[in-house]
Write a structure and sequence with these properties.
39% of the residues lie in helices and 22% in strands. By secondary structure, the protein is an alpha/beta fold.
Length: 335
C-alpha cells in the first residue's frame, strides 16, 4: 500500500484550475523534488498534504498512523519563546502514546546541539537563517514519517546547507521538498514530480535524468503542435471557400474544425520567468550603483565597516557569509 495516495485532486472554482484533477502515489522512503514555475501550485500542494488547506475536489489518503510535518517557506510571525521550547512544541502536541516528556527534551537538546543552535536563547532574537534552522529542528524532533520542506536552504549559509544535506541523507522517512537550489535538488531527490499548467507529472527519475527527458518531451510536444497548427490552417482555408464547403455538406468535417479551434484556444502557453530590471528608464550608462564607506552597527556591534564597491549593469553578485553576518542588512541598505 502506498504511503500517500493523491486521487483526482483539484484546487480552483473555474478554469484554468491551479491543480486540475491530479493523481499520484507516494511510497515510503521516496525523496521527491517538487518542480514547477512560480505560482504553479507547489506550496499549495504541500499545504494540502499536511492538512493546512482543503481541496475543492478529490482526496488525499495516508496509510494508517502516518505523521506529517512541514517546514514553511516563511517564519511564522507569532513564534515566540526560548529556542528549546519552540523546538519541542510540535513534538509535545503530537507525542506518541507512552513517550515520556524527558525523551522529547533529550531529543530536542541533541538536535539543537548538533545544529549549533543556542538552547536557551529567545527565538525572536535570532537572525532569519537561525530561525529557519530552529523550525527545521522542530520538524525533525517531531519524528514525522513524511517531511515537507518549502525552500529549506533559504537563509542558510554554506555550512548549514552542508549540515542539512547530511542530516536528510541519514533520515529514513519520506521527503517532499520545493527548492530553487539545483545542487540541493540534485543531491536529495530520487524522484521528480512536476506541476505544469494544472497537471502533475511523475518523471520517476532523479534530477539529471529529468532534465534530459524534459528536453526530449518538449521537443516532441513542439513537433506535435506544429503538425496540429498546420492541419488547422488547412481546415481554415477549406472552410473559407464558403460555397464549395457548403456544397459538400461535410458536417463532420465542420464539427472537427470547431473542435480543433476549441483545442487551440484552450492551449495554455507556458509562462516565462519575469526579469526584474532596476532603473530601467533612468539608466544612461553602465554604472548601477557606487557605494563608499558604508558603516552599520547594531547593539554596539559593528556589522558593516567601511564597505565600498561599484555595481555595473549586468553584474551577478552573490553575497555570502555565516548567519547573522549582515547579508540581509547590506541588501536593505543598498536598496
Amino acid at each position: 500500500m502506498a504511503q500517500i495516495t493523491i486521487k483526482e485532486l483539484s484546487v480552483g472554482h473555474s478554469k484554468p484550475f491551479l491543480l486540475d484533477a491530479v493523481s499520484a502515489q507516494i511510497e515510503a522512503g521516496d525523496r521527491i523534488g517538487l518542480l514547477g514555475r512560480n505560482g504553479a501550485g507547489k506550496t499549495t500542494l504541500l499545504r494540502l498534504l499536511c492538512g493546512e488547506l482543503m481541496p475543492d475536489g478529490g482526496e488525499i489518503a495516508f496509510s494508517p498512523g502516518t505523521r506529517v510535518a512541514r517546514l514553511p517557506q516563511d517564519v511564522p510571525l507569532d513564534t515566540h519563546g526560548r529556542v528549546c521550547d519552540v523546538t519541542a512544541q510540535v513534538a509535545l502536541q503530537n507525542h506518541v502514546e507512552g513517550e515520556a516528556p524527558w525523551e522529547i527534551e533529550q531529543r530536542v537538546e541533541n538536535t539543537l546541539l548538533s545544529m549549533g543552535l543556542p538552547i536557551e536563547a529567545p527565538f525572536e532574537s535570532l537572525s532569519s537563517g537561525m530561525k529557519r534552522r530552529v523550525l527545521l529542528a522542530q520538524s525533525l524532533v517531531s519524528q514525522p514519517d513524511v517531511l515537507l520542506l518549502d525552500e529549506p536552504t533559504n537563509h542558510l549559509d554554506l555550512d548549514a546547507i552542508k549540515w542539512l544535506e547530511e542530516t536528510l541523507g541519514r533520515w529514513k522517512g519520506t521527503l517532499i521538498f520545493v527548492t530553487h537550489d539545483r545542487m540541493f535538488l540534485r543531491k536529495m531527490a530520487n524522484r521528480i514530480l512536476e506541476i505544469d499548467r494544472g497537471k502533475l507529472y511523475d518523471w520517476t527519475c532523479d534530477y539529471d535524468k529529468f532534465l534530459v527527458r524534459k528536453e526530449e518531451a518538449l521537443a516532441a510536444l513542439e513537433r506535435q503542435e506544429e503538425l496540429f497548427d498546420r492541419k488547422l490552417a488547412e481546415e481554415e482555408k477549406w472552410i473559407r471557400t464558403g460555397i464549395k464547403a457548403r456544397r459538400t455538406r461535410n458536417e463532420g468535417r465542420v464539427r472537427a474544425l470547431e473542435a480543433m479551434r476549441k483545442l487551440r484556444s484552450e492551449r495554455q502557453k507556458k509562462v516565462g520567468q519575469a526579469s526584474l530590471e532596476i532603473q530601467e528608464a533612468e539608466r544612461s550608462g553602465s554604472l548601477v550603483a557606487a557605494v563608499e564607506g558604508i558603516r552599520f552597527a547594531y547593539d554596539g556591534r559593528e556589522i558593516i565597516g567601511g564597505f565600498g564597491t561599484r555595481i555595473m549593469r549586468g553584474d551577478k553578485i552573490g553575497v555570502i557569509g555565516p548567519n547573522g553576518a549582515g547579508k540581509t542588512t547590506l541588501l536593505k541598505i543598498l536598496l
